[in-house]
Amino acid sequence: MRFSRDARRAILLTLSLLSACAAADPTASVDRNAAALTSSGNYLAGRFELSHGDFDTAAVDLLNALNASPNDPELLLQTFIACVNSGRPEAVQLAQRLPSSQVAQMLLANAAAKAGDWKQAVARFRAVPRDGVMQLLQPLLLAWASQGAGDTDQALATLRPFLDNPRYRSIVALHSGMIADIAGRQREAAAYYQQAEPELGDQNPRTSLILASWAARSGRLAEAEGLLTRMAANVPEASIALPGLIASVNKRPISRALDGMAEAYATFAAALRSQETSDFAMVMSRLALDVKPDSATARLLAADIQANAKHLQAALSLLDQAARSDDPIVPLVRMRRVGLLEQLERTDEAIRAAEQLGRDYPDSSLPDIELGDLLRIKRRFSEAVTAYDRVIARIKQRSPNDWIVYYSRGIAYERSGQWARAEADFNHALELSPDQPSVLNYLGYAWADMGRNLDRARDMIQRAAARRPNDGAITDSLGWVMFRQGNVGEATKLLERAVGLEPEDPTITEHLGDAYWATGRKIEAQYQWRRALTLNPTPEDAARLEAKIKSHPYGTVASGK
């Protein structure tokens, strides 16, 4: 049997990572079933859905296909992974038929742990070989299973050898601290948490909350709040969740062994989600949800993995589920949801969601920043200015990171015809962060397009180009300012390169046509202008291009960006 490249990649990559031996040789044929499965609507639909991240529907169709061909090893494995990733109970039944698959053995260990049979969970985790990423994941899971069985000494002994490895020390210290914390061994917990904090204290909301909770429950509330505040500064998108995180510090985030197992799985899902091992990361996030179904962290990780794979609707569904949690990271989940709605081109819905976030979290600037950006996309520039005004009004002391807000408001001002205010905002942005290529380019291009401050404009754009030499928009701006200065020959070379870098940009293509016309290459100019009309220009730009083509203008032709 042959199945789709994406589906094969998902299965075989997971197997190779987990050293599973259950899959058949991917080049081997299963002639006795190939014809039947190829003609099966369920199988064809299932493998298509699996390759597109629709695990729920894929699991249904593949289960039906497996019923027709129950002895096909590749189909069995494919169906098992689909069931794991959709959270279906059939995954446990299928796992019992896959004794050589480490994913299957972990799922069976999960089932034992959930049933309270910690002895069996320990035995299954202990039998999993420490290959690849399992070098660390296996001892973490084994330690938590030992803790579930009530053997804290064994749990900590399992992890102790890994504290000597600098690659593993911080995460092992964190889990050791959580195990000692649950067991009431405060002195040991304190020592382990102290080891973990230098590397993990401000890296993400979850680890910061775990460490802050220990500090708060140890009577050091100010230290706990300071740790979370530093994390929010280091991870700006998490700042909207900061009040909720601070409010929850007196509650132990990990209160049972099943929670610790979910934390171990989620740790690996987070570490692997942006790499070529994203298929394994998805399995890890689903195993986390298997033992802790209400984990907003695991659902957020799964959503990120789906979004990175361009499975946006599946990612949105996961975020919708996570947003119904009472976890303090829910505001962050809702912000991610706004971004996904925009990617799905459901911009009006995204605007409404951002507006509601602003009402629910009035002390955070993030909803208004997102709202302003969305309103700019919809060309509602005056409303965007109002949203950015609210952000700027909250700034108590300007910092270099605030350049983006002034830059964004400047764009909204410029697009709404308020150039003086736009120019002031661009200059404010450069005062805060003088070498930002985006601001240097935008202001320099605007001056060039207006025929103003051409020497300064060229200098600014050259500085931007030095930082982003392969940016098509900046290369276009440099060509355009040279064109406006009368250096048509050099401008043409730069504009040709810009079109090569950004071949689908109508404005850059129009600029190249203008340069060709100025050098007497009229047929090529007309071609570029007509081509620009096919690249989805704005209505205003399209009208200008049509007029330009019709009137065959001579000399320099002004155009907009």
Task: Outline the structure in words.
The protein has 561 residues and is mainly alpha-helical. The chain is 72% helix and 0% strand. It is built from 32 helices and no strands. Helix 26 runs antiparallel to helix 27. The chain is globular and about 85 Å long. The N terminus and C terminus are likely disordered.
Short description:
This protein has 561 residues and is mainly α. The chain has helices spanning 5-18, 31-38, 41-51, 55-68, 73-86, 90-95, 102-114, 118-127, 134-148, 152-159, 169-182, 186-200, 205-217, 221-234, 242-247, 257-272, 278-291, 296-308, 312-322, 330-343, 347-360, 366-377, 381-394, 403-415, 419-432, 437-450, 454-467, 472-484, 488-501, 506-518, 522-533, 539-551.
Q: How are the secondary structure elements laid out?
A:
Blueprint: H1 5-18, H2 31-38, H3 41-51, H4 55-68, H5 73-86, H6 90-95, H7 102-114, H8 118-127, H9 134-148, H10 152-159, H11 169-182, H12 186-200, H13 205-217, H14 221-234, H15 242-247, H16 257-272, H17 278-291, H18 296-308, H19 312-322, H20 330-343, H21 347-360, H22 366-377, H23 381-394, H24 403-415, H25 419-432, H26 437-450, H27 454-467, H28 472-484, H29 488-501, H30 506-518, H31 522-533, H32 539-551
Helix pairs in contact: 1-3, 3-4, 4-5, 5-17, 7-8, 7-17, 8-9, 9-10, 9-16, 10-11, 11-12, 12-13, 13-14, 16-17, 16-18, 17-18, 18-19, 19-20, 20-21, 20-22, 21-22, 22-23, 22-24, 23-24, 24-25, 25-26, 26-27, 26-28, 27-28, 28-29, 29-30, 30-31, 31-32
